[in-house]
UniProtKB/TrEMBL annotation:
<dbReference type="InterPro" id="IPR037202">
    <property type="entry name" value="ESCRT_assembly_dom"/>
</dbReference>
<dbReference type="InterPro" id="IPR017916">
    <property type="entry name" value="SB_dom"/>
</dbReference>
<dbReference type="Pfam" id="PF09454">
    <property type="entry name" value="Vps23_core"/>
</dbReference>
<keyword id="KW-0653">Protein transport</keyword>
<feature type="domain" description="SB">
    <location>
        <begin position="326"/>
        <end position="394"/>
    </location>
</feature>
<dbReference type="Pfam" id="PF05743">
    <property type="entry name" value="UEV"/>
</dbReference>
<keyword id="KW-0813">Transport</keyword>
<dbReference type="GO" id="GO:0000813">
    <property type="term" value="C:ESCRT I complex"/>
</dbReference>
<keyword id="KW-0967">Endosome</keyword>
<dbReference type="InterPro" id="IPR016135">
    <property type="entry name" value="UBQ-conjugating_enzyme/RWD"/>
</dbReference>
<feature type="region of interest" description="Disordered">
    <location>
        <begin position="159"/>
        <end position="216"/>
    </location>
</feature>
<dbReference type="GO" id="GO:0008333">
    <property type="term" value="P:endosome to lysosome transport"/>
</dbReference>
<keyword id="KW-0175">Coiled coil</keyword>
<dbReference type="InterPro" id="IPR052070">
    <property type="entry name" value="ESCRT-I_UEV_domain"/>
</dbReference>
<dbReference type="GO" id="GO:0043130">
    <property type="term" value="F:ubiquitin binding"/>
</dbReference>
<comment type="similarity">
    <text>Belongs to the ubiquitin-conjugating enzyme family. UEV subfamily.</text>
</comment>
<dbReference type="GO" id="GO:0015031">
    <property type="term" value="P:protein transport"/>
</dbReference>
Length: 405
């Protein structure tokens, strides 16, 4: 592992500063992913010191511009046992790290992008399998840079435009003059990170228009060229099929996620309704128990008093049909009966005054007297009820020692 650069602490301070900004100047990343973004960039700069984090303006295909983080610098690759530095820009889009970053190769003035490259289009956009199979949260920038170095070493995406006096089977070497020229000016750290002490040689010469290979000039076999072209075409077709299949599967997954959300909402509604029905069943069962108990009490009373009134149904007095067990119960019965009788009389008086059968002043006088009497009956009933409760409590307290023994 490459040791961290001397200004590693400055990188940490820079990332902490830009990711903690609020308001209009805040970066468009969600709060729950900013810490992971910071860790990804710190690991990337520690492993690849030639890449430095910056903030710059990114323009989407629809014309929208947004201020984003980027890793700007070079990625080393090994081609034919010689190390080259490929200038790249890794843009961390708004949905990063849940979605992959955008990677571009950014050639200098004396470089050109190889035509028909299987993973780099003419605009410099990189589309390698690691980006297409990005999995959150396991995928990261360090593995992405390693994958770029490995794939570019197999098939370099850039070549030098500098003319050569004569074909030379061995690539010429020259010092690396610049890693990348960036038009953005905002948010850079210092003047850049120290580059590895490697002399990057000149890139291989451009391939023929339909060749797609890199090697010795004028010595390639036609069969090898044809084979390489067929392989590149197959890779392009497979890549297109994979993109189409991925879009189809993503659409299916979105529809399945929508159906899953609907099913979960319905499940919650069904569970809520089931709970309410269970509560209602419990309440009805408790009421049924009360009704059954009252029915048993009434049936026992009927059986007990059926023989008493069997022979004297004609001589029975309605007021004496119910015998109270004590004085309080008798007083409660009289007060309740008087209260209900007064209620009926007041209702009849209301009907009479509405129909004009009674003068209004006489109606007020009678209602006043009846209301006074009804008030006393209700007050007496309340006192009797309180006395009955006290007597019941005393009776239960007296029976408690008997049950305890």
């Amino acid at each position: 592992m490459v040791p961290p650069p001397p200004n590693h602490q400055a990188i940490q301070q820079f990332l902490s500063s830009v990711l903690s900004q609020r308001g209009p100047s805040a970066l468009p990343y969600t709060e729950d992913t900013k810490w992971l973004i910071r860790q990804h960039l710190l690991s990337l700069t520690s492993t690849f010191p030639s890449l430095e984090p910056k903030t710059a303006t990114f323009t989407h295909n629809d014309g929208r511009t947004v201020n984003l983080l980027q890793a700007d610098g070079t990625v080393p690759m090994t081609f034919e046992s010689v190390t080259y530095n490929i200038p790249v820009i890794i843009w961390l889009i708004e949905s990063y790290p849940r979605h992959p970053p955008c990677v571009y190769v950014n050639p200098t003035r004396d470089m050109v992008i190889k035509r028909s490259h299987p993973f780099v289009n003419p605009s410099g956009l990189v589309a390698i399998p690691y980006l297409q199979n990005w999995i959150y949260p396991s995928s990261n920038l360090v593995d992405l840079a390693r994958e770029l170095s490995l794939i570019f070493g197999r098939d370099p995406p850039l070549f030098s435009q500098r003319p050569r006096p004569s074909p030379n089977p061995n690539p010429s070497y020259h010092p690396n003059q610049s890693s990348l020229t960036n038009s953005s000016t905002s948010g850079s750290i210092g003047s850049g990170y120290p580059r590895p002490m490697v002399r990057p040689p000149q890139y291989p010469p451009p391939s023929p228009p339909y060749g797609g290979g890199v090697g010795k000039v004028g010595t390639e076999d036609a069969a090898e060229v044809y084979k390489r072209n067929v392989i590149n075409k197959l890779v392009e077709n497979v890549h297109g099929d994979m993109l189409l299949l991925r879009k189809t599967r993503e659409a299916e997954m979105e529809s399945l996620f929508s159906a899953q959300a609907v099913l979960r909402r319905r499940e919650e509604e069904v569970n809520k309704g089931l709970k309410e029905m269970r509560d209602e069943v419990e309440g009805l069962e408790s009421q049924l128990q009360v009704v059954l108990m009252n029915t048993d009490v009434l049936e026992a009373w009927v059986r007990q008093n059926e023989g008493k009134v069997k022979g004297s149904m004609k001589d029975i007095d309605v007021d004496k049909a119910f015998e109270c067990v004590d004085v309080l119960s008798k007083q409660m019965l009289e007060c309740t009966a008087a209260d209900m009788a007064i209620e009926d009389v007041v209702y009849s008086l209301d009907k009479a005054v509405q129909e004009g059968a009674m003068p209004f002043d006489q109606y007020l006088r009678n209602v006043r007297l009846l209301s006074r009497e009804q008030f006393f009956n209700r007050a007496t009933a309340a006192k009797v009820r309180a006395a009955q409760m006290q007597a019941q409590v005393a009776s239960m307290a007296a029976r408690a020692p008997h049950y305890g023994s």
